[in-house]
């Protein structure tokens, strides 16, 4: 059988580089670098084809697109670090309508200076993002079966939870909020005639086929991982065999969730298929996938699908619950990008960074519409998968669970005694790095133990964060003070990461951690 490259793409809420550094105090070089690369037609490695789509759909020229994407990548890192630094005062972050101004909401005026120092615009709000998430979770339980409601999500820009209702169901939306115990001043009702549905049965990026009720259905590959590809969960139940574009045996659906907590799936392929870090734009080009750094609300985003081609737009909200005919799905990202049947499972990119896979939506690409995608990082974390990238180091969400071998002739002690070991170097005060390896790790319910050994004369803080249903990391524990930092936290199963923050000084550090 001919070996066929798999064109795929996906999204991640965690950074994909091996040693991602989020620079807080300075933006030096960000816009200048974007403008200089724009002159070449491929800013930051962005393909000319994706630039053309952004020009058509967003009205941006090469320089503007490059600047916006550079700011988006910077904003994603800064937002994650500010969430760690401001803790429960964090109210969410988003790019303003100009696509370049990062706004960060906080509930405490004392956190304003921290936000300003990071180069962002502080916004004082009444409710923290944690409080908004809690209100939205109450709606997940109370409103899942309420007729006339098509979804609800946290809107950090208005500091409220938005409930989407059909025209005759506005009162039902307010009643659902009351029954869930959500304060009326924390809720906004958005009236819409749209009825979201899964975009099933036709291909998005490269097609693949599954057997359904004696027939054959078609979906799209999302992004390549080292052992196969990720896609939408509604594109096949676990154990279903798949065939490729050429009707040759391809693989098996090893993991599938739909409806419920997500719309995510993973297909393990056989040796005849080679996962590659590219996305098919159906114009004869391959768009590169360099990593999986999650873009914030307000960022530009593009998707590929064989039914409609490549279209671009803006991320409008995260952690939306969408009521499909098959049932409610939580944790989706809402966009103003159009899509049509057959685009399901296909990839979403912000520049060359994987963002997610198409779930469903409403409208079409003639009159317009809105589309939801499943964040790719959550899929990677759920199955300990590694994204295949053009950078060669991959992006993933798994930490090893076995201890490294002890050095010959010696015994491990202190931080070295913990089984998972990571090292890094921070070159400037105010920088932060995510661990393990710029990503995150999936853990069962248990106790997280960590120890950070910072260089002499430096003050490094250690923060533990958990990925919530909105696709954002929430700080659950921190260790500060002088000397080595130790941390212990008992929590439920989920996706976690450590953030090492250089409060003062620079140099190399070592981090040991474990979950029991």
> Tell me about the biggest sheet?
7 strands, antiparallel
Low-confidence stretches: 1-41, 200-204, 397-413
- What proportion of the residues form beta strands (DSSP E)? 35-45%
Spatial order of the strands in the main sheet? 11-10-14-15-16-13-12
Instruction: Give the total of beta strands.
Output: 36
Structural class: alpha+beta
Mean pLDDT: 81
Ends: how far apart?
Answer: 46 Å
Number of helices: 7
Outline? globular
Question: Taking Cα atoms only, what radius of gyration do you get, to the nearest Å?
Answer: 22 Å
The proportion of residues forming helix, as a percent range, comes to 10-25%
Description:
By secondary structure, the chain is an alpha+beta fold. The strands form 8 sheets. It has a 7-stranded antiparallel β-sheet with strand order 11-10-14-15-16-13-12, covered by helices on one side. A hairpin with a 7-residue loop joins strand 26 (386-387) and strand 27 (395-396).
